[in-house]
């Protein structure tokens, strides 16, 4: 601390560079006991809260067919291990489809079915 510092009634040291950091502001103990609300928060929160079940279904749910909803319910009923096994199966299927596509593209290249027809003029 600086040599010319003094003590105030609250016991804080004042003087020198520490004066720039000192605040005599009295803060409340917790935001839970703050009596005032921020203006406009209640209205904003009411527009952002999820709608009640009595209203129409959400837009993303309205676009789904019954088969899609059944599939979502099936996935929702799986345990984490079962769901991971399902994901692994889908990854293996995607890999196998990629191999099949590469094989067919190579075959098409050798058979020259992917070339553009040459004009005779």
Tags for this model:
Protein lin-52 homolog, DREAM_LIN52, mainly alpha, 4 helices, single chain, 121 residues
Using the CA coordinates, give the radius of gyration.
34 Å
Tell how many strands the DSSP assignment holds.
Answer: 2
| Major beta sheet summary | 2 strands, antiparallel
What is the CA-CA span between the terminal residues?
95 Å
Order of helices and strands: EEHHHH
Mean pLDDT: 76
Q: Indicate the low-confidence ranges by residue numbers.
A: none
What oligomeric state best describes the polypeptide chains here? single chain
Question: How would you summarize this macromolecular structure in one to three sentences?
Answer:
With about 120 residues, this protein is mainly alpha-helical.
Write the SSE topology.
Elements: E1 6-7, E2 13-14, H1 41-48, H2 59-62, H3 66-77, H4 80-110
Antiparallel strand pairs: 1-2
Describe the structure.
This is Protein lin-52 homolog. InterPro entries: DREAM_LIN52. One of its GO terms (cellular component) is DRM complex. Belongs to the lin-52 family. It comes from Littorina saxatilis. This protein has helices at about 40-50, 60, 65-75, 80-110; strands at about 5, 15. It has a two-stranded antiparallel sheet. It is built from four helices and two strands, in the order ββαααα. The chain starts with 5 loop residues before the first strand and ends in an 11-residue tail after the last helix. The radius of gyration is 34 Å and the shape is elongated. It is mainly alpha-helical and about 120 residues long. The chain has a domain at about 60-120. A hairpin with a 5-residue loop joins strand 1 and strand 2.
